[in-house]
TrEMBL record, chains A, B:
Keyword Metal-binding attributed: no
Pfam families, per the entry: tRNA-synt_2 (PF00152), tRNA_anti-codon (PF01336)
Any one Gene Ontology molecular-function term assigned to this protein's record: RNA binding
InterPro entries recorded: Aa-tRNA-synt_II, aa-tRNA-synth_II, aa-tRNA-synth_II/BPL/LPL, Asp-tRNA-ligase_1_N, Asp-tRNA_synthase_2, Asp/Asn-tRNA-synth_IIb, NA-bd_OB-fold, NA-bd_OB_tRNA
Function: Catalyzes the attachment of L-aspartate to tRNA(Asp) in a two-step reaction: L-aspartate is first activated by ATP to form Asp-AMP and then transferred to the acceptor end of tRNA(Asp).
Main localization category: cytoplasm
Subunit text: Homodimer.
Catalyzed chemical reaction(s): tRNA(Asp) + L-aspartate + ATP = L-aspartyl-tRNA(Asp) + AMP + diphosphate
Gene label: aspS
Chain sites annotated for binding ATP: 218-220, 226-228, 366, 414-417
Protein name: Aspartate--tRNA ligase
NCBIfam families membership: aspS_nondisc (TIGR00458), PRK05159.1 (NF003483)
Organism in which the protein naturally occurs: candidate division WWE3 bacterium GW2011_GWB1_41_6
HAMAP family assigned: Asp_tRNA_synth_type2
One GO CC term, this protein: aminoacyl-tRNA synthetase multienzyme complex
Length: 446, 446
C-alpha cells in the first residue's frame, strides 16, 4: 500500500491508509490512546483502542514518546462532532490505528516538545537546535521565512527582473574596513562580502533589472538581539528610473506582495504567534529625515534635530507618529545626510548635503534600506576618491559605469529581521535556523 | 508618455513609443541608420532616416557606439516582408525613430561587442567582466542558469519539499581538512562550508523533505577548467525512503524538469549556443560501478577494474556506452566503494564494501551525486569515529539522529557545472558571473 501523507487523510475518509512520520505527542487515556503523527505535509491524529489490539501493540504504543519514528496502518475517519480541532488543517479527521511499527526509536527528550510553546531559554533552544527546530512553532518561523523569500522573488520576476548569483568572496572590504571577516585564500587574503551592492549595480548594466538572494557577513563585535554575523540579504536594483520615488514604489510593491502572500499562504503560521502583518496606507507615507526629527521634537519634546541619523528611539517615535497620523505601521524616512551614506549614494541636486536615500521603518525598526546611486562615471569616480577609495581597487565596479549606466537605484532587506518583526520574536537568532554570532557557530566557540 | 519595454513594441504597431536602453549595435547605411536597442525585456531595431531628421540628430546618431545609454521616441511598425529577423523575439517589428537623446555616453569599447560572438580569450573576458556580461550570448548563460535554479526549486516544491537557509560558516572542516578555507572569526577560526550536507540531513528531521540553494567553497589548489573556489550548490534531502532507488527517481524528476523548462523557457538561449539538453531514456539507465568497469574493459580494452573509482576517461567511456546501448546521454553509476565515500554513506547490506550511492554521469562528466545515508544513531556514531571524527565536534549533527531519523537520502548538483555542460562551454568560469579561482577574485590576485 502506498504511503499517505498526513494531509491527504482528508481525502481518504473511509479508506485504509499507511502513515509514516514522527510522534509529535502521545495522550494515553488508558483504554484509548491518541498519537499525533508529524510528516512533511503536517500533523494528523491517530486513535488506538487498547481492546482491539494485541498486548504487544498496546505496550509498544504506551512506550512511545516524542520524535519516535513510526509507521501506522489504519483507517481514515471523520472525527465525531464536537471533537474537531480547528487549529489543525487535518482537524476534522483522524486515523483509527490498527498496527504500529517503530522504525527508529528516539532518545528520551531533554525537555517537553509536546506543548504549544517550547518555553526554553535561548541557549537551550540553540544548544539543541536539531531537536528544537522540529517543534511546530519553531518550524513555523522557517515556513514564514520561505514565504518571504519566494514572495520577494516572485514580486520582482513579474516586474521583469532577472535573478543572478552574487559572489560572497570579495577582494576588498568595500564598505569600510571594520566589521569584515578575512578569509585565508591560498597565500592571500580575501573578504566575506558585507553586501552584494557592487554586483547588483554591475548587473543593472547587464539585465537592467536584477536581484539576488544571498548571504552577507558582518563581523559585528557585540552580541545584540538584532544582529547576526551571517544573514540572508534580498537585494534588488534597477535602471532607467525617472525619479527616485520609483525605487520606493518598487520596494512597496515587494513588501505589499510579501504581506499578501503571508496572509494567503502563511495564516496558520502567523496564528501560532498571534501575529499579523503590519497595516499600512497605500502609498506608504514618506517623510524627510529632517522633517521626521522636527515631528519627533514636536511630539515628544526630545530634540535630535542636530543628530545626523535617527537613533533606535527615533525610529520608534516616528513609527508611533505614523500610526497615529496615517494608521500606518510602515513609513519611509528619506534624505539621509550625505556623510552618513556610502560614496555611491546620489546627492539630492536640490541640497547636496542630503541624499536620495531612504529607510523603510516598520513597527519602529529599519526593514528596508535603499536609494538612488550615482550613475555618471566621472561623478562616481570623484566621490569614490573623496571617500578614500583607490580607483584601482574598484576597477570591475567602475567599469560598469564607464561603459554606460542609466539612472538607477535599489534596495535591500534582511530576511531574518523581517521574519523576526512580522512574528514578534524577541531575538533575531530565533529567525535563523542556524544562527551565527560572536559566541556561537552551531556550538559555543571556546 | 510611458516608456515601452522593447518586447512590447510587438503589441504597439502603429503607435508612438518611447524606448530606453543601451545601444547594442549601429549599422550606418548613410541615409538610413539602424540602431539596435537593448533593455530588460530584450532587443529591438530602430530605423532612422537621415532626410527626416535635423542635422544635429543625424550627427548624434552617427556618433553612437555600443553601450551608449539612450532614449528614443518613434513609431512601432511592421517590418517589410523579407526583412524580418527570426533570431529576435521582436524580429517582425521595428521602431521608426523620430528623436534620440543620449542619457549617458559610454567610453569607447575595448573590443567589438556587436557581433554574434565575443571571441575573446578567457583573461580578457574576465578582466572586462562588467562589460562582457552585457553581450547577449554571455547574458544567455545566466538566463539559462536562472532557469536551472528556478526549475530545481519548483520541481521539489511540488513534491512537498521545504526550502531552508543553510549556513556557510561552519565550526569545523567536516569533509576532511584539505581544500577548506579558514575564516578569521573574531579571535577564533571557523571555516567556509564545502557542502550543506549536515544541515540538509538535520532538516530531514524537521521538514522530512528539505532543500537548499547556497554557496559552497572548495580551496581547490589548482587551476582547472571545471573547478571554482565558490559555487552554487543545489542540495535536496528527504526521509522515509523505502529503497535507495527512490533517491535516483527524485533526482531524475528534477533533472527532467530542468530539461523541460530549458526547452520551454530557454530555447532562444540554447539556440545561441546551438545547444540542446541531453537525450535520455526514462528511466535513466542504472549500472553498478563494478559492472561499469567490466563494460569499459569489454568495450575499450582499458582495464580499470582494480581502481576504486571511475576516472574522467572512465566517465566518458561509460557515457559512450550508454549512448550506444540506450540512446541515453545520462546514466546513473551506483555502488561506489565504501572507502571512497564519506562516513555517513549507507553501506549496501548485501555487500558492506559498497555503498548505496550514485553519480549521475551526463555527457561524460559527473552532474549529480547522491545516495542513502546512515540514519541509525549508533551506526552513524560508530562510522564517524572509525573515520577519525570526534563525536563532540559533530554534536549538532548527531543530535538529529539521536532524536529519531527515518531512512533518508538525497543528492546535490553544482549549478555552474550543469550550465557549462548544457551549453557546451569549454570552461566553468564562463558559467559563473563572477568566477573565483586561485588566481582571481574579480581582479587578478597578486
Amino acid at each position: 500500500m502506498e504511503r499517505t501523507p498526513s494531509l491527504d487523510t482528508l481525502n481518504k475518509v473511509g479508506q485504509e491508509v499507511r502513515l509514516k512520520g514522527w510522534v509529535r505527542l502521545v495522550r494515553d487515556h488508558g483504554k484509548v490512546m491518541f498519537v499525533d503523527i508529524r510528516d512533511y505535509s503536517g500533523v494528523v491524529q491517530v486513535v488506538f483502542v487498547a481492546g482491539m489490539l494485541s498486548d504487544e501493540q498496546v505496550a509498544l504504543i504506551k512506550g512511545l514518546h516524542g520524535e519516535d519514528v513510526v509507521e501506522i496502518i489504519g483507517t481514515a475517519q471523520q472525527r465525531k462532532p464536537g471533537t474537531e480541532n480547528a487549529d489543525m488543517p487535518t482537524g476534522t479527521v483522524e486515523v483509527f490505528g490498527k498496527e504500529l511499527t517503530v522504525l527508529q526509536k528516539a532518545a528520551e527528550l531533554p525537555f517537553d516538545m509536546g506543548g504549544k510553546d517550547l518555553n526554553l531559554e535561548l541557549p537551550t533552544l540553540l544548544d539543541n537546535r536539531s531537536l528544537t527546530l522540529r517543534h511546530p512553532k519553531v518550524q513555523a518561523v522557517f515556513k514564514v521565512q520561505e514565504i518571504i523569500v519566494d514572495s520577494f522573488r516572485n514580486a520582482l520576476k513579474e516586474k521583469g527582473f532577472t535573478e543572478f548569483i552574487a559572489p560572497a568572496l570579495v577582494p576588498l572590504p568595500t564598505e569600510g574596513g571594520a566589521e569584515v571577516f578575512k578569509v585565508n585564500y591560498f597565500d592571500k587574503t580575501v573578504y566575506l562580502g558585507q553586501s552584494p551592492q557592487f554586483y547588483k549595480q554591475i548587473m543593472v548594466g547587464v539585465f537592467e533589472r536584477a536581484f539576488t538572494v544571498g548571504k552577507v557577513y558582518r563581523a559585528e563585535p557585540s552580541v545584540t538581539t538584532r544582529h547576526l554575523t551571517e544573514y540572508l540579504s534580498l537585494d534588488a536594483e534597477f535602471g532607467f528610473i525617472e525619479n527616485y520615488e520609483e525605487i520606493m514604489d518598487m520596494a512597496e510593491h515587494v513588501i505589499s506582495r510579501i504581506f499578501d502572500d503571508l496572509n494567503e499562504k502563511g495564516a496558520e503560521y502567523l496564528k501560532l504567534y498571534q501575529a499579523s502583518v503590519p497595516k499600512f496606507s497605500k502609498p506608504i507615507p514618506r517623510i524627510k529625515l529632517s522633517e521626521a526629527k522636527e515631528v519627533i521634537f514636536n511630539e515628544t519634546g526630545r530634540d535630535i534635530r542636530s543628530e545626523p541619523d535617527l537613533d533606535p528611539q527615533g525610529e520608534r517615535d516616528i513609527y508611533a507618529w505614523a500610526q497615529k497620523e496615517y494608521g500606518s505601521e510602515l513609513i519611509f524616512v528619506t534624505h539621509y545626510p550625505t556623510v552618513k551614506r556610502p560614496f555611491y549614494t546620489y546627492p539630492d541636486p536640490e541640497n547636496p548635503e542630503e541624499t536620495l536615500s531612504f529607510d523603510l521603518i516598520g513597527r519602529g525598526v529599519e526593514w528596508v534600506t535603499g536609494g538612488r546611486r550615482i550613475n555618471e562615471y566621472g561623478q562616481l569616480l570623484e566621490s569614490a576618491k573623496k571617500w578614500g577609495n583607490e580607483p584601482k581597487d574598484l576597477e570591475i565596479y567602475l567599469q560598469a559605469f564607464k561603459y554606460g549606466m542609466p539612472p538607477e537605484g535599489g534596495f535591500a532587506l534582511g530576511v531574518e529581521r523581517i521574519t523576526m518583526n512580522v512574528l514578534g520574536l524577541k531575538n533575531v537568532r530565533e529567525a535563523s535556523a542556524f544562527p551565527r554570532d560572536m559566541e556561537r557557530v552551531d556550538i559555543r566557540l571556546s
